[in-house]
Protein 1
Amino acid sequence: MDLSEAQKPDVAPATASAYLDPNYWDRRFEQEEHYEWFKDYSYFRHLILQYVKPNSAVLEVGCGNSQLSEELYRDGITELTCIDLSSIAVEKMKQRLLSKGYKEIKVLEADMLDLPFGDECFDVVVEKGTMDVLFVDSGDPWNPEPATVSKVMAMLEGIQRVLKPHGIFISITFGQPHFRRPFFNAAAFTWSVEWRTFGDGFHYFFYILKKGERASDDAEHAAKIDMPSINLFHEELDSEDYLFRTDLDEL
């Protein structure tokens, strides 16, 4: 084992439901400098740059200690705003970005369920693994608990509100289309829904939701791509990402 790997703090929670505790994230961000949920930027760069342009005003929801904003900045996207609920994550992100000279990226402490922005102010909103946290104790994935539904809908309603007309919401997730489409295609939303996949062994989902572009029959006939089989390689099983697919409280 590489020495740097051996010295990394053990930040994985004892139970999956701990991901819902803001105190867990504060403790984690105090110890951990960087972690990428659902693969790093190189795996989906070819996808995201189709929709995020140099003049795009971009909001990243739940930035944590990811380097996504830095990668986008290096690709010429400079009007970036990152939010996270953890004040510790926000302060450490600010310091890291300033140390690299990325002074244009804004980092704010904010709740993704109550976005503190005016209407129609972003061209693109990106979330990477953030919405998945809301599902860790959702119960039956085919019929989630009402509390989960309420939180997910609050998040999505806020995102649609802050998107400009024809703005794009990008969701990078474990959530398969048959579980996400009931939310994305809810009557409250006007966006069209597409998805792509990326990754090795296990495929992650890259959703593209375009505000104001839903066809009348989109709710019944969302764009389809062949579903990949779930085939986890050893490195995927070792990854903490796998906890999002496992109800540890029942093991």
Note: Residues 126 and 170 are 5 Å apart (CA to CA).
Protein 2
Amino acid sequence: MSMRTVLEVIALDVEDAVAAQAGGADRLELVTDMAADGLTPSLHTVAGIRAAVDISLRVMVRLADGFAAGGAGGVDRLAGVVGELRAAGAEEFVLGFLDADGAVDLGAVERVVAELDGCAWTFHRAIDRAADRDALRKQLDGLPGLDTYLTAGAAGGVDDGLPTLVAEAALGGQPGYEQRIMVGGGLRLDHVPALRAAGIDAFHIGGAARPEGWAGPVSVDAVAQWRTVLDAETVGSAV
């Protein structure tokens, strides 16, 4: 029997979260301010969404646009935010920090991960801006709780990154490649067959769940369409 393909949907508020769950999402990524590509939402929003839905939530740990942690003071703030988010009911997280040279800011990541105290987390699309994706993965290998990379394979999106995604999927299980690949960033339904054929089983959508754009809410029907396609591809891959 095939495992269900994971569908994660970006939620900005309770309305989004309820619609995403109704459409068949398995997990939500909670953020605010998509003009900055997604920042940490308010504690009120996190608590409200946690009370409204019963699917998994991953909360963004990111306080400013870009992928820098913001120096020692910024890292202290990020660590403090994690404690507040956990008190508000957050149990899973999304984060990722790079230094000025495009290498992983390992010190910042380790400090924030220490505050997670074993909670599951995703390293987000900072990997798509990294100078060396393979080096980043191997430096992060073994950090507690890291179970997913959210990636388009390239900074420009899945159209550009598809070959990289397929190549990385083929390395699954090797050091630095044990984590699940969750594809997001310019993802379209027509990308799904090639990605499923490569063994990728997790997909992340934001704008694709919002027919009216980011000014409008998540659409139950749009999420349900993704759910239907992913379920069909999962059945097809098992035949």
Note: Residues 6-238 form a domain with the TIM Barrel fold (CATH 3.20.20.380).
Protein 3
Amino acid sequence: MTASTFDILDLGSVPYREAWDLQHRHHQRVAAGEKPTLLLLEHPPVLTLGRKAKDGQNIVVTREYLASQQIEVLEIERGGDVTYHGPGQLVAYAIFPVGRKIVDFLRLLEQATIQALNTLGLPDARPNPGYAGVYVNDREVNGKVYAQKIASFGVAVKRHVALHGIGLNVSTSLQHFDLIVPCGLQDTQMTSVQREYDLRGLNREVTMPEAKQALADAFRDVFAGYDWSVPEMTPQPASRPTSPARETRTPL
């Protein structure tokens, strides 16, 4: 594979609804046979509810409180439960053809994220069998052992092409995860690259450009042998209405 097999676009910080429209615009292109695209961006604070969210029962504060903090709540079509996006979290939307290889695709997302975290100096990054996402080593807090989740995954596949993807906590405000039971998981704490640096006494700061480059390089490597063909299908209407949205492209 050459570096041009798929585009990598750095969109900066984009409100969630606007990014949602952008995802669907790119999804329509890729489903029509055009070049796959990896979107890298951050969001202002927002909670999103996946298909398992059950009306937001894992949000532990009132909707009125969230509104007072200007934190929007949106129901979306990805898998999974509730999650948080906000500044300092690297969001990667892989608009890639998947077909029926959904589990294999998720494993590749895990592999790319783990490789990026290794590059960033966290050699213990790993999958957690039975759960989507990437974790680092468990940590004992007040006599209780908690899993340490550093990246969350959630995808949807329509017309054989993926939407949504990865939320990697780089320097995220982890206090915002106290608003929810992240992904509906008990006995799990959310962590970030910066928190791991601090707790491990590494005396360094992570930057978002550094994290984006590490993840972009990992995607290029991990997806080097990927099957980029889109299965034959009967043309279908767009999966949801979209509105015009700003798109600033910064290739990586």
Note: Residues 7-222 form a domain with the BirA Bifunctional Protein; domain 2 fold (CATH 3.30.930.10).
